[in-house]
Amino acid sequence: MNTRGTYIVIEGIDGAGKDTQEELLKGFLPEDTVYTREPRGTAIGEALREIIVTKEVDPISEILLFYAARRELMNRVIIPALKEGKTVVSNRNELATYAYQVHGREREDLLPLVTTLSKDVLGDIKPDFCLYYDIPVSVKKERISGRPDQLDSFDQLAEDFFERARAGYKKHIVKYPYAIIDASGTIKEVHEKTREVLQEFLT
After folding, report:
1. Rounded to two decimals, what is the model's pTM?
2. Cβ atoms of 11 and 130 closer than 8 Å
């Protein structure tokens, strides 16, 4: 019987460099590591993301769509890989909902809903470790300004939204074992720090 694998999550506001750091981990973690991302990662997740970023939906609908995509990813990708004893790296998880949909959108009244969904939709599968890449919103703005053709509806939200989201991340990340990494440095500096904290966690 295989031992349950390790579930690692990468988080941070847009522009923090999550995609780049995830790619660099492929030279550090085991070869059979499964890499995925929310809300993508499944055909249903891709379809739901298209709705989320292109259509106007109310805050509750937005949360429900994210959790629908999250459950699909959990059932079809993450849980099967963990059962096989593999390491799973997910670019985002439900911390993003707490940060963006609850705090970013100033809907703290929806926190009980998110807490209930977390329990009923995801069950007891929680990350073993979370890497949170932290950058000032001013750095985020500068970085994404260089990719105008890749911006989605979230990238274009006001700076104060991301200030609230950043604070939301730091409030809720304590739910898991975690490390906060200063992502405002060079790609090499951030990667070296990432390896350092992961090495400490994995040994």
Report:
1. 0.90
2. yes
> Three-state SS for 130?
strand
Return phi, psi of residue 190, to 5°. -70, -40
> What is the strand order of the sheet 34-37 is part of?
34-37, 88-91, 7-11, 129-134, 178-182
CB atoms inside a 10 Å sphere around CB 182: 12
CATH code for the domain of 78: 3.40.50.300
On whether residue 2 sits in a domain, the answer given is no
Query: 195 phi and psi, to 5 degrees?
Result: -60, -40
* 3-state secondary structure at position 37: strand
Exposed/middle/buried for 139, CB within 10 Å: 0-12, 13-18, 19+?
middle
pLDDT (tens digit per residue) in 43-81: 999 999 999 988 889 999 999 999 999 999 999 999 999
Identify which of 170, 150, 194 has the alpha carbon closest to the alpha carbon of residue 20.
194
Number of compact structural domains in the chain:
1
Whether residue 1 is contained in a domain is answered as no
Q: Give the domain extent around 16.
A: 7-202
